[in-house]
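$ run holo --ligand "zinc ion" --emit tokens
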Amino acid sequence: MAIREIIILPDKQLRLVSKPIQKVTAEIRQLADDMFETMYDAPGIGLAAIQVAQPLRLITMDLAKKSEEGGEATPQPRVFINPEIISSSEETSVYEEGCLSIPEYYEEVERPAKVRVRFTDLDGKVHEEDAEGLYATCIQHEIDHLNGVLFVDYLSKLKRDRVLKKFTKAAKRAEE
Ligand code: ZN
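-- output --
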């Protein structure tokens, strides 16, 4: 396993539409392993392959919570290949979202509270699941990445322009 570099705003690759995975090869398994290591190291709860510059429809996620005693949580790694939302509730919920590609920026986003998701696992098996709560928010956020959509796209133009400007300036400073 290896930690890969996470690309950040305003990297244009974040706007790419990722390609479906035809077959779960050794390379795809390696990519998923690396994405977990990268995600846990960040740390984050979800990662889309494009965030490590691979335009493929692959997501890693781990929503395990730390125990109440503050001990380490048991890892619950999950892989979603070619995931799609097949239905969404009318009811919405609001979560404060963040993104490893937009570090240290958090804003509330309103999304459908429940979704039904279809995806393939690493064994090539297709699943359908109902998601709600944090799972629903996270899977929608990550599937958006596969379509070149970022959570800041749901904010007002004013807020979006402000965050884009901040990250563009930071990228320029890093080049100097
Ligand atoms: Zn994200």
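-- notes --
The chain has a mean pLDDT of 95.
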